[in-house]
UniProtKB/TrEMBL annotation:
It comes from Apiospora hydei. Pfam families: MFS_1 (PF07690). This is Major facilitator superfamily transporter. Its main location: membrane. It is a multi-pass membrane protein.
């Protein structure tokens, strides 16, 4: 999951490392990591329903996968990965992440093979443990890769075909009540992780020296707020925009994860579709998400990011409200449509929350990534509601997440010039590759006034 809020790293790396065209191969390897966590995240939503069927667990119990994936990986292990990155660099951190990823995937084989249907809780506990190890690996990979390159759409390219495969391997014929194919799918995942790990081991992955980072950081010209003060000049806990952006990210990811996690349940209970058909429709929804990212990227060249996200959030809320009250195939169609409008939310919130923070940029980026842990909180809540009142009613949970996103982005839009059309960018490039927010005419005037005061 994750990622999508950063720009690509600078093409030139000083201090005796690779430059220019020599970066193409290692950068391509880093981008390939997005397919790995897209692959795994796409399977996660499908396994939710499959384990309910095979192991006879409740919807609430099945959300244990999301809890350890987003809570264990992104909330708990991301700080560990960040410390390894700081001490040992990108290559060592990526290799550590790939190791965790491959070990967790290969452990699905013995877990599925020795699962006893007579003791479903123990069997599911084994799968949860495997998912936790995979999540630690993915959190490590994303922590390191985000500093190199995050391409807005690529993170989902490895996702949409997973439910298509699952409809055949998990929900068709004898596979519908078997864990055998879970072994083979994750064996393939482990092999893919190991293969990429070998490529990384022999690659000359460029690092950025601390001296270069320090020089680049001090060379930045911090933005000036409406009161003539340097943005980011105060302590981190007083960067209120970043704090509220973190909460918005937490709520958005929680909404996104719950919408996808219970998609097949919704298609089955409210739409009358089979699990295999629901899995196919989930793949169509994820394709819609990818198309939505492309469309939003194009629109962002015309409209101001916060204004566009405000419109998207309004539409998502309206559709989500219909989903929670609808019956039949129309509700499933509306559920697919939500994926289009939620597509640009993560990267836009990330950009708004980390803009113009000066010396706090790196820590703020880490905090915003930890917002992904919202997926570990929202899913159990929705699972409990789905067990008691039905899946359709449980979709009021992501609706609450979208409401907060709308509140955050509306306030941001009101406080930053109320622009509808895109304002010319003024970008402060930081060593992490994070792009600064758009600077309005009011902010430029405030900066000029501040300069005059200092003179």
């Amino acid at each position: 999951m994750a990622g999508g809020g950063l720009t690509t790293a600078p093409a030139q790396v000083t201090g005796g490392y690779l430059t220019g065209r020599a970066l193409i191969y290692p950068l391509s390897l880093v981008i390939s990591l997005f397919f790995l966590w897209g692959f795994s995240y796409g399977l996660l939503d499908v396994l939710n329903k499959h384990f309910q069927t095979v192991l006879g667990i409740t919807k609430l119990e099945s959300t244990g996968l999301q809890v350890v994936y987003f809570g264990g990986g992104y909330l708990v292990f991301s700080p560990v990965a960040a410390e390894v990155l700081k001490r040992y660099g990108y290559k060592a951190t990526i290799l550590m992440g790939l190791t965790f990823y491959s070990i967790g995937a290969i452990m699905f084989w013995p877990t599925a093979h020795f699962s006893n249907p007579a003791n479903p809780s123990a069997a599911f506990g084994g799968f949860v443990a495997c998912t936790f190890i995979i999540a630690c690996g993915l959190a490590t990979l994303e922590t390191s890769a985000n500093s190199y390159a995050v391409v807005i759409v690529l993170e989902r390219c490895g996702v949409f075909h997973r439910p298509l495969i699952a409809s055949k391997f998990f929900f068709s014929g004898e596979n519908a009540n078997s864990l055998t194919n879970v072994q083979f799918v994750y064996l393939a995942v482990a092999c893919a992780g190991a293969a990429i790990g070998v490529l990384f081991f022999f690659a000359k992955l460029p690092e950025v020296s601390k001296e270069a980072l320090a020089t680049q950081t001090t060379a930045d010209n911090p933005a000036i707020d409406h009161y003539g003060a340097e943005v980011g000049s105060g302590p981190l806990y007083k960067q209120y925009n970043m704090i509220f952006a973190f909460i918005a990210q937490f709520c958005y990811v929680g909404a996104q994860v719950t919408i996808a996690s219970f998609f097949i349940n919704y298609a089955s209970e409210s739409g009358g579709f089979t699990d295999a058909e629901g899995s196919n429709m989930l793949s169509y929804a994820l394709i819609t998400f990818t198309v939505g990212r492309f469309a939003a990227t194009a629109l962002a060249t015309v409209f101001q990011a916060d204004f566009m996200l405000m419109v998207y959030a309004c539409v998502a809320i309206a559709i989500n409200a219909y989903v929670a009250s609808a019956h039949g195939s129309g509700g499933v169609g509306a559920l697919i449509a939500i994926f289009f409008f939620e597509a640009p939310m993560y990267p836009t919130i990330f950009t708004l929350g980390t803009a113009n923070l000066g010396r706090h940029t790196e820590r703020a980026a880490g905090i915003l990534v930890m917002g992904v842990s919202g997926g570990a909180v929202f899913t159990p809540i929705q699972g409990a509601i789905a067990d008691k009142f039905g899946t359709r009613i449980s979709y009021l949970v992501p609706l609450c997440g979208f409401l907060y996103v709308l509140g955050y982005v509306t306030i941001h839009w009101l406080r930053h010039g109320r622009h509808i059309m895109r304002v010319k960018d003024v970008v402060n490039t930081h060593p992490t590759g994070i792009a600064a927010d758009h600077t309005s005419e009011d902010e430029k005037k405030a900066e000029a006034v501040a300069v005059e005061r200092r003179m």
